[in-house]
Design a protein that fits this description.
Elements lengths: L2 E2 L14 E2 L18 H6 L3 E4 L5 E4 L11
Antiparallel strand pairs: 1-2, 3-4
């Protein structure tokens, strides 16, 4: 499951929205985000699109990935 931070509004109207999820080897959730570590791919894909269940969508203009590891 992908989660929206509890401080964000559920309609994504905040100027900054924080999503949490897992890198999945099969490409699910954020599995393909690792592609953005390749500079050429990143330069060609600087925006994304978030799709709502009702068919609406919004453009995502900034993507930031962070790797967190359990100790």
């Amino acid at each position: 499951t992908i989660f929206l931070d509890s401080e964000n509004t559920s309609d994504f109207s905040d100027c900054y929205n924080l999503l949490f999820g897992h890198h999945m080897a099969n490409g699910a959730m954020f599995g393909d985000v690792v592609r953005f570590t390749d500079r050429t791919y990143f330069e060609k894909h600087q925006t994304g699109r978030l799709f709502y269940p009702d068919g609406r969508s919004v453009e995502i203009q900034r993507l930031i990935g962070r790797s967190l590891r359990s100790v």
